[in-house]
Q: What sequence folds into this?
């Protein structure tokens, strides 16, 4: 029998529970049924086309099912949501949740991430007869309170909105059996640390605590020390990635590693006068493309200019309403807006499959920002490309940032129309024909006031062969 914190058939080195990639096939071959998940849940996963677990899932699910507190570290796109979500659901199958008293809780830093977690777990919860609920800002709190009154087994929440519901008496945490903090370091960066501790202090003393994140640094040490009891630690990283890191680079296991062997990194040196033309050619490529800029104004301006040049692009940033952000993400996910221009609000928590290219139109401010942005591509075993646009005065400083991030990148000097640009990114000249905003709903049909409706128009007709009764 394997030791706790290890995966059967997997060689581990270093600290207990660390999967270094020595035998990746052994982890990928682990079936969900072998991990101890309930059969109805395994069948639901199979219907969704999920037969085997990713490394982080195979490493952590057995320990969570056994009731251990757990610290999980893995790169974005590695399957963290199912790694904590599936065993949480399995642990909640016995028992019924009272009104306003969820038995499971997931805390997330952003409403987008919370809603995505709900979507990812919806079918699994349905298969087990469990009820999910969300508590996030940007939507009416009354609707969320009413949902809690009807009973919620697993609540997925942002700290601020959950605190509001508790203050209103619409939610209580004294029945929570298991809690997960997802992207805990990001919540700390957003200033939620005090709110998180207040919420966690409301949980029963014997509640199971799970902390999952692509990055785990000093900002969450206090949470680990205060709330996790003898936690099992699992870090799933790539042995190739670690080998490529310089000695003084950040620990790859503690970062949202956008530096794996499936990602190609390129620096594109451009003249300031050519920068927009080069960006527009890259954006006109085939495939889902994510462009990062520094400011909300810059995101709106670039998206508008791209649409004017014939590229179906939209902008995502914190200044947009929840409805606008939801429509934008839906358009990006379904392909009607293949280009998304975003600020760093999208660098975490926005998980859209098949993003084949990430472009730093504005270079990131620090190594973490680079890795979090880069983590939007090459998800779930796919490959991807990350390019950074650099003008003459940015190159030296940015090379130092890459060294600190442990990233090795090729460098090319490009101008609009260069063949090397096409080779690296698939760039092509945009059509020049303006396109509408793909995330804007069409206007309602106009009714000509001069046309009077016929008598009886719009009434439902009687079913054929059925005579209306005059009684």
A:
């Amino acid at each position: 029998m394997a030791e706790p914190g290890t995966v059967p058939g997997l060689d581990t080195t270093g600290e207990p529970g660390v999967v270094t990639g020595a035998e990746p096939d052994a982890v990928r071959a682990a079936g969900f049924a072998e991990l101890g998940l309930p059969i109805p849940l395994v069948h639901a996963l199979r219907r969704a086309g999920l037969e085997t677990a990713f490394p982080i899932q195979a490493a952590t699910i057995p320990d969570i099912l056994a009731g251990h507190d757990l610290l999980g570290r893995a790169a974005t796109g590695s399957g963290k949501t199912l790694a904590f979500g599936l065993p949480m659901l399995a642990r909640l199958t016995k028992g019924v949740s009272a009104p306003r008293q969820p038995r499971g809780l997931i805390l997330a830093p952003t409403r987008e991430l919370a809603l995505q977690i709900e979507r990812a777990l919806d079918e699994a919860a349905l298969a087990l007869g469990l009820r999910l609920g969300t508590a996030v800002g940007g939507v009416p709190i009354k609707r969320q309170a009413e949902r809690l009154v009807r009973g919620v087994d697993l609540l997925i929440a942002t700290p601020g909105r959950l605190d509001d519901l508790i203050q209103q008496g619409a939610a209580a945490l004294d029945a929570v059996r298991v809690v997960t903090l997802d992207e805990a370091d990001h919540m700390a960066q957003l200033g939620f640390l005090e709110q998180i501790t207040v919420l966690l202090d409301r949980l029963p003393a014997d509640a199971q605590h799970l902390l999952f994140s692509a990055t785990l640094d000093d900002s969450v040490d206090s949470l680990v020390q205060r709330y996790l009891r003898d936690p099992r630690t699992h870090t799933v990283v790539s042995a190739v990635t670690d080998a490529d890191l310089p000695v003084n680079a950040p620990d790859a296991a503690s970062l949202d590693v956008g530096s794996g062997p499936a990602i190609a990194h390129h620096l594109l040196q451009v003249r300031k006068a050519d920068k927009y033309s080069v960006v527009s050619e890259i954006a006109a490529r085939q495939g889902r493309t994510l462009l990062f800029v520094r400011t909300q104004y810059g995101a709106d301006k670039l998206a508008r200019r791209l649409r004017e040049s014939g590229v179906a692009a939209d902008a995502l940033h914190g200044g947009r309403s929840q409805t606008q952000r939801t429509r934008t993400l839906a358009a990006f996910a379904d392909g009607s807006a293949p280009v998304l221009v975003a600020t760093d609000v999208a660098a975490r928590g926005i998980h859209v499959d098949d993003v084949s290219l990430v472009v730093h139109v504005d270079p990131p401010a620090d190594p973490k920002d680079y890795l979090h942005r880069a983590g939007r591509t090459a998800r779930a075993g796919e490959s991807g490309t990350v390019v950074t646009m650099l003008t003459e005065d940015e190159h030296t400083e940015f090379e130092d940032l890459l060294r600190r991030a442990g990233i090795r990148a090729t460098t090319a000097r490009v101008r609009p129309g260069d063949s090397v640009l096409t080779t690296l990114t698939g760039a092509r000249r945009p059509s020049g024909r303006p396109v509408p905003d793909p995330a804007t709903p069409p206007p309602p049909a106009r009714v000509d006031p001069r046309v009077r409706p016929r008598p009886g128009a719009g009434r439902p007709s009687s079913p054929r062969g059925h005579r209306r009764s005059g009684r």
